[in-house]
Please model this.
Amino acid sequence: MQLAHVTLDPAAVVAPVNRRTFGTFVEHLGRCVYTGLYEPGHPSADEDGFRADVLALTRELGVTTVRYPGGNFVSGYRWEDGVGPRDRRPRRRDLAWRSIETNEVGIDEFARWAAKADVEIMYAVNLGTRGVQEALDVHEYVNQPAGTHLADLRRANGADKPYGIRMWCLGNELDGPWQLGHQNAEAYGQLAAATARALRAAEPDLELIVCGSSSSSMPTFGAWEATVLTHTYDLVDYVSCHAYYEEHDGDLGSFLASATDMDHFVDSIVATADSIGARLRSKKKIQLSFDEWNVWYLSRFQNQPPADDWRVAPRVIEDEYTVADAVVVGNLLISLLRHSDRVTAACQAQLVNVIAPIRTEPGGPAWRQTIFHPFARTAALARGDVLRTVVDGPAYQTARHGETSVVDAVATHDAATGEVAVFVVNRDQARPVEVSIDLSRFGAVAWTAAASTLSDDDVRATNTADHPDRVGLRPNRELSTHAGGARVVLPPVSWTAVRLSVAPTR
Model:
């Protein structure tokens, strides 16, 4: 049996757990909205046409923030198409995903859904085919209380009170040639700065997110952020990060180590942002909004021929996730948590059907994909402060990331309740690992513990409509506590959450 040691210290605090880490993403793409969130004819549909089964799963998932309405979609979107009487809303071509947008769901409907789900909206404005005026108009519609044309239009459309949206994305992935309105860094930096100034004139304390690179593989990665932040550093609060991971050519070992790439991505953007801050002699620290991340088999999508017709809500990018995918998602959450000092918002893309933890069938069931489970458990247990976790254990070689650790972990500590949560993965494909969790720095206390593990003898196992619970979290019976901590055995290719509570002493 392999052995690993995890050391925790309640004084080694990275940052408080930020609830916005557990955000998601809803884009008008494929079946995310239509037959995903919204299906008026469904047996579970509520008075607004939203699927109650999807709402229940969203709450169970623990989502706190949702980015809307895109994504690539937003760069060609006219927000005003989605307000007012439904029978007067125009049908439009969506060039980003080659589909027909009916505009049955717009900002008013989505805000009602967000209120039901108890999530905060992160709104993205169109800086692809539109610009400053569009941003001001949609802001006036959603946030101005009353007494102006667009605020009063919102009220006439049924929303008397403003939505109070705090977080605003200044466009989407405008470094990408695939994006409508693609620009170079200089042009985008100037447009983002102008938009930020205008929005701050309207509402000074908004939280603004400027576009970073659409991936770390872009040839302009780093240089894009440096140029854009030179224009916007004092005007914005966040720079966005986007990253998707997939298994390439059967190289499971490299895929399981994807979080090492996310770590490097975050560290690189932090270094770039801080270098611009130093050059500008600013004491401000730009935060990171990792507002698109997930496992996505992008190469499969890119290898498909484009649709030869235009459809409403086509089945697009409906990846079916495996045990291995879920372990990677759990590990990516570990990476996001350990960077909580700078990554203070994040959105897993997306919520329903499209590369999503929740799947649905029109008129039929909704179910949890494998990746649902590590997200939901992490969101439920991560409380208090993130601790700087030291892991000592075996390593292995990967083709893409070089030597990396077999075991990766992060921990949180809620000083008010005494509870500790440890999230840990075993990346080894064949051997279990016994992990010793050293809690001696918490003092002489007794611990009670419980652990749940996601694993399976078949790392390619999935959940389907017919077998929705094939893969899930199971109690880990190989867990014990002792005076100085706990021990738990991790199966090969597994993700585990350990919950430790100070036991009452008599």
Remarks:
- The mean pLDDT is 97.
- The two ends are 37 Å apart (CA to CA).
- Residues 258-279 form the longest helix (22 residues).
